[in-house]
């Protein structure tokens, strides 16, 4: 069906379409925009009537794009990104307050050393929220989130913090003991990173001694290692500072790479493009 030669549809109709297509739901698009579901549905209906085509297939509990909707969506996103970027460039707009959500481990070991510089570069007040242990949700809202995984989130902005690899570390006094380090007590940490069984399978060391200390955060396990309580299989990027200052010592030269890592995720409501570029350049090295 041919499109009628009417003026460009109102921007709020187009934004409603893009949000619903990105989030897969009229309700989610309404929540993001601070509107009712009925208002979003009405705007998209008006847009479809203006264009003369259906953009979504409506089902009982879901929506999906039509062929015309799929064809138009990339152009809409490019146009909205261009409008946002030009507004920032011409008027210097940016968010005055940025909120970062991350685990206590990555906050203390990765974010805090960069926080003062980050506030200067983004010209914003920084609010840091501690992620509850075990929570992995990452909604695309007005919060910048740091999450561990493979990077397959739908966010407009994504940056890998670093390349993950695991190395055995211990307090210098414990590391200096005679004999093979593989006989020393071991510390374990729950979570998605590979542990001692993966290390043993890769490098052919015994699976014993079995760890008698287990922590639910990387930060706590590192603290136990610094206290001389055992050998911890640590994330090399997160323990670099401790190695450099001498509170931990690396045991051997082997390292175990891992395909997952921390990722910084954000949507356009969380920060401006300029602020994202500054943040990702400073925080993400992977």
Automatic annotation (TrEMBL):
Keyword DNA-binding among record annotations: yes
Xref: SUPFAM superfamilies: Periplasmic binding protein-like II, Winged helix' DNA-binding domain
Residue span(s) of domain HTH lysR-type: 9-66
GO molecular function: DNA-binding transcription factor activity; sequence-specific DNA binding
Signal sequence, start to end: none
InterPro entries per UniProt: LysR-type_TF_proteobact-type (IPR058163), LysR_HTH_N (IPR000847), LysR_subst-bd (IPR005119), WH-like_DNA-bd_sf (IPR036388), WH_DNA-bd_sf (IPR036390)
Lineage: superkingdom: Bacteria
GO BP: any one term: DNA-templated transcription
Cytoplasm listed as a keyword: no
UniProt keyword list: DNA-binding, Transcription, Transcription regulation
Family membership: Belongs to the LysR transcriptional regulatory family.
PANTHER family (UniProt xref): HTH-TYPE TRANSCRIPTIONAL REGULATOR (PTHR30537), TRANSCRIPTIONAL REGULATOR-RELATED (PTHR30537:SF79)
Protein name: LysR family transcriptional regulator
Native source organism of the sequence: Maritimibacter harenae
Source organism phylogeny: Bacteria, Pseudomonadati, Pseudomonadota, Alphaproteobacteria, Rhodobacterales
């Amino acid at each position: 069906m041919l499109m009628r030669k009417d003026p460009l549809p109102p921007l709020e109709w187009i934004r409603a379409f893009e949000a619903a297509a990105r989030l897969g739901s009229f309700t989610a698009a309404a929540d993001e925009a601070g509107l009712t579901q009925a208002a979003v549905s009405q705007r998209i209906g008006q847009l479809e009537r203006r264009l003369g085509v259906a953009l979504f297939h409506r089902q009982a509990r879901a929506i999906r794009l039509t062929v015309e909707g799929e064809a138009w969506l990339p152009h809409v996103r490019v146009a909205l990104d261009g409008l946002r970027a030009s507004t920032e460039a011409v008027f210097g707009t940016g968010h005055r307050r940025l909120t970062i959500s991350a685990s206590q481990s990555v906050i203390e070991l990765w974010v805090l050393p960069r926080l003062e510089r980050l506030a200067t570069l983004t010209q914003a007040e920084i609010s840091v929220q501690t992620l509850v242990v075990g929570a992995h949700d990452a909604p695309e809202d007005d919060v910048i989130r740091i999450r561990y995984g493979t990077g397959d989130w739908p966010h407009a902005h994504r940056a890998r913090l670093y390349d993950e690899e695991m190395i055995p570390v211990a307090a210098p006094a414990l590391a200096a003991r005679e004999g093979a380090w593989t006989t020393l007590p071991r510390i374990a940490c729950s979570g998605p990173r590979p542990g001692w069984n993966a290390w043993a399978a890769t490098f052919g060391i015994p699976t014993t001694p079995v760890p008698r200390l287990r922590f639910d955060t990387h930060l706590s396990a590192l603290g136990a290692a610094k206290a001389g309580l055992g050998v911890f299989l640590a994330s090399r990027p997160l323990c670099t500072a401790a190695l450099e200052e001498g509170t931990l010592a690396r045991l051997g030269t082997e390292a175990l790479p891992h395909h997952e890592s921390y990722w910084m995720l954000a949507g356009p409501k969380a920060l401006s493009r300029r602020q994202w570029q500054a943040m990702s350049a400073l925080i993400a090295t992977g």
